[in-house]
Amino acid sequence: MITIFYINGVSQDRIILSWLTLVSMCQLDELYGIFYAYRDRKYKEKKEGYK
After folding, report:
1. CB 23, CB 31: distance < 8 Å
2. Do residues 8 and 44 make contact, with C-beta atoms less than 8 angstroms apart?
3. Transmembrane region positions (predicted)?
4. C-alpha to C-alpha distances, 16 to 47, 50, 51, nearest whole angstrom
C-alpha cells in the first residue's frame, strides 16, 4: 500500500498527510521510517544511474 504514495508524483505529499491522519501516533515513527528508507534507496539508485 505504501507504493501508492510514490505513483502520483506531485500529489504524494497530500496523500501521505491524509494517510497520517488515519494512522495512530504509535505507528507514525514506523511509517516515516519506511517512507525515508524507500526515498533514500530511490535517491541512491538515481545517483548510481547518473554515473
Report:
1. yes
2. no
3. 16-38
4. 25, 28, 31
pLDDT in tens, 16-31: 666 667 766 556 677 7
Helical residues (DSSP H) of 1-51, grouped into ranges: 4-7, 12-22, 25-50
Question: Residue type at 18?
Answer: S
Q: What is the pTM of this model?
A: 0.32
- Cβ of 25: how many Cβ atoms within 10 Å? 7
d(CA 43, CA 51): 13
**Residue ranges per domain, the chain?**
4-50
